[in-house]
Amino acid sequence: MGSGFQITVVANDSTEANRDIDLAIKEISRIEKLISSWDSNSETSEINANAGIKPVRVSEELYGLIDRAIGLSRLTDGAFDISYASMDKIWKFDGSMKKMPSDEEIKTSVSKVGFRNIILDPANKSVFLKAKGMKIGFGAIGKGYAADQAKALLIRNNVKAGIINASGDMNTWGRQPNGKEWTVAITNPLNKTKAAAILPITNGAVVTSGNYEKFVQFNGTRYAHIIDPRTGYPATGILSVTVFAPKAELADALATSVFVMGIETGLNRINQLPKVECVIIDEKGKVFTSDNIEIDRI
Ligand code: ADP
Ligand code: MG
Questions:
Q1: For residue 260, which of 4, 77, 67 has the smallest C-alpha distance?
Q2: Among 11, 64, 235, 297, which residue carries the largest CB count within 10 Å?
Q3: In testing the pocket of ligand 1, which one of 209, 226, 230, 265 has its CB within 8 Å of the most ligand atoms?
Q4: pLDDT band at residue 2, thresholds of 50, 70 and 90?
Q5: What is the pTM of this model?
Q6: pLDDT in tens, 101-151
């Protein structure tokens, strides 16, 4: 998935541990093949290639993932949308942008985005992107899904405890060999050598979204690299969003969504979801948390 996975298992010896880790790696590679949009032979690429042309029959697994992704779009009022992938790349975060794009350009850039145009046929297990030029991509949910699947596979293989770390997206189960809970540190975006908070996670996932380096600034407003698929405008005001959830797939998707929804709407939505919590750090380094979370501020 273009980014490093790190797998930790608790095992009796290194042979057993290596066997378990190999299993997890194979599972992650399998999922990568399914959801990759740069591999032209993947089911995902086939769906994209047939946008505006015809429905494509896919595996039960990919169908299920797309179905859940559309559910997340509904849950977030479209802040999360796998059809974001057709957006024109008018925002550049490499220093090359000299002025704000026009309102017209921004509007046009998202004209092919819209989860309501992803048509699912449950009887045929087919997926149809209604408009020509539409595209789906799993950048904000795929790593989480792969981490959940790898964890489930290891649990089925009697691995008692471990961590799947998908480049910072953590998914844990069981406890450390000394009986203590696993703990995670949330980086302080304004000072990366310092943790903003340290929290225990026993059986669940914690995912952080936010890239503190990638942004552009116009007229004193800082525009982040995560773009609202409904408007074409980048998210503003937030530096990082960390979401805790029982599953990494949900945490991954929601972290990106809260970024787009903003602090108030994001926290409201998270507070309505059972077993889901979040920590938001804004541009000034101020920390906001959902209702049922206690963090040790450092
Ligand atoms: P990262 O995994 O890079 O730390 P995220 O989990 O927030 O960060 O995912 C960002 C990626 O998600 C983007 O690179 C893009 O592929 C995809 N994406 C961006 N905006 C959206 C959106 N609104 N809905 C769904 N996917 C998105
Ligand atoms: Mg995400």
A1: 77
A2: 235
A3: 226
A4: low
A5: 0.92
A6: 999 999 999 999 999 999 999 999 999 999 999 999 999 999 999 999 999
Mutation probe of ligand 1 site: the residue of 227, 230, 256 with most atoms within 8 A of C-beta? 256
Q: Give me ligand 2 centre to Cα 168, in Å.
A: 11
Pick the CATH number of 43-129 from 3.20.20.80, 3.30.870.10, 1.10.3980.10, 3.30.300.30: 1.10.3980.10
> Helix, strand or coil for residue 65?
helix
Which residues sit opposite 287 in a β-bridge?
Answer: 281
Q: How far apart are the first and last CA of the chain?
A: 33
The reply to whether ligand 1 has any atom less than 6 angstroms from the CB of 21 is no
d(CA 175, CA 52): 49
Domain segments of the chain as ranges: 1-37+139-172, 43-129, 181-297
Q: How far is the CA of 23 from the centre of ligand 2 (A)?
A: 24
